[in-house]
Design goal:
Elements (H helix, E strand, L loop, with lengths): L3 E2 L5 E2 L3 E12 L8 E13 L4 E5 L6 H9 L6 E6 L2 E2 L7 E5 L10 H5 L1 H5 L4 H14 L15 H14 L4 E5 L7 H18 L2 E5 L3 H7 L2 E6 L4 E7 L15 H14 L14 H4 L8
Parallel strand pairs: 5-10, 5-11, 8-9, 9-10
Antiparallel strand pairs: 1-2, 3-4, 3-6, 6-7, 11-12
Helix pairs in contact: 4-5, 7-8
Bound molecules: adenosine-5'-triphosphate.
The site of adenosine-5'-triphosphate has 14 residues, from strand 3, strand 4 and helix 1.
Length: about 290
């Protein structure tokens, strides 16, 4: 198996490895159309390091959710494979926590009961469950809301519950599919800050799907850029912006604008174009502040 080189040149096994992965959907024959195949993912090779936050960006239909579902064990490749710690993924497991767009909370369970769900599945004793859920409810800033039901919470609060629920049973990997898409812009920035704070505290490996280039650049160590028809991995861009990022105003820095622009250019499908770094703040100004896919 391929390995990543650490700064000291010691080979390190990737936390997640995707090897020569293809996903083909067989479309049904319809009137006037023969049965066809649709290549959703083509020849994907990707490694995610232990403790890394990797973002997946790309246009609608490029296969981001399909890839995340395969990592979650909820979908399967047509050929090739995905591995966690060198072990082939063959189905869902508690080593992976999933946070989806739209919260997917159990409406009949309170905040605490939602957060404790995975712990119940793991048969963690009641007292310990309570300690753990209290810790994660506090971590996501929802102390005092333990006995509320999902319909009594705002969108941002529900998303925090979903994150606490995924973290509570201590998965090694967190898979997040556009988790902040359903909340307003201001709440989204607050949740991004929260996620970085939690990530720095818990050291989880995170794969984060987003339509927003800005979100990807703000959060990620590296951004995997996918293109559509068929879904291929175009480039993996390292984001060398300083951390912590959630304590300052990094989004308005020239460096941030430059990286965002680079990814935006990659998504404009201009192969082989040589990028020359524009000077200073003009880089950020040249890009739409709402640059998203
Ligand atoms: N069950 C299916 N049968 C046929 N085609 C499918 C099926 N599921 C997904 N696809 C196709 O596979 C491609 C990838 O879908 P996927 O949902 O992974 O894309 P995505 O990048 O997550 O899109 P979006 O950003 O819009 O959520 C799409 O073109 C979609 O139409």
């Amino acid at each position: 198996m391929a390995t990543l080189a650490s700064p000291s040149e010691t080979p390190v096994l990737p936390k997640i490895e995707v090897k020569e992965l293809n996903r083909i959907y067989h479309l049904k024959r319809t009137r006037g159309n023969d049965a066809r195949e649709f290549i959703a993912l083509k020849d994907i090779n990707l490694e995610v390091r232990d403790g890394e936050l990797l973002a997946l960006v790309g246009p609608s239909g490029c296969g981001k959710s399909t890839l995340l579902d395969i990592l979650a064990g909820l979908a399967f490749p047509s050929s090739g494979a995905a591995y966690i710690d060198g072990k082939k993924i063959t189905g869902p497991a508690l080593d992976r926590g999933i946070v989806l767009q739209g919260y997917a909370l159990f409406p009949w369970r309170t905040v605490r009961q939602n957060v404790e769900f995975g712990l119940e599945v793991k048969k963690v004793p009641k007292g310990e469950r309570r300690d753990i859920s209290s810790r994660f409810i506090k971590l996501v800033g929802l102390e005092g809301f333990e006995e509320r039901f999902p319909h009594e919470l705002s969108g941002g609060m529900k998303q925090r519950v979903a994150i606490a629920r995924a973290l509570a049973y201590d998965p090694e990997v967190l898979l997040m599919d556009e988790p902040f898409a359903a909340v307003d812009a201001q709440t989204r920035e607050i949740l991004q800050d929260e996620l970085l704070r939690i990530w720095e505290e818990t050291k989880k490996t995170i794969v984060f799907v987003t339509h927003s280039i800005e979100e990807a650049v703000f959060l990620a160590d590296r951004v995997a850029v996918l293109t559509a028809n068929p879904g291929t991995l175009k480039e993996v861009v390292s984001i060398n912006l300083p951390r912590p990022r959630h304590t300052g105003d990094i989004r308005s820095s020239a460096e941030f604008g430059w990286v965002r622009h680079k990814i935006w250019e990659l998504l404009q499908n201009r192969p082989g174009e040589v990028m020359v770094r524009p000077a200073g703040v003009a880089v950020a100004d040249a890009i739409s502040p709402t640059a998203a896919l």
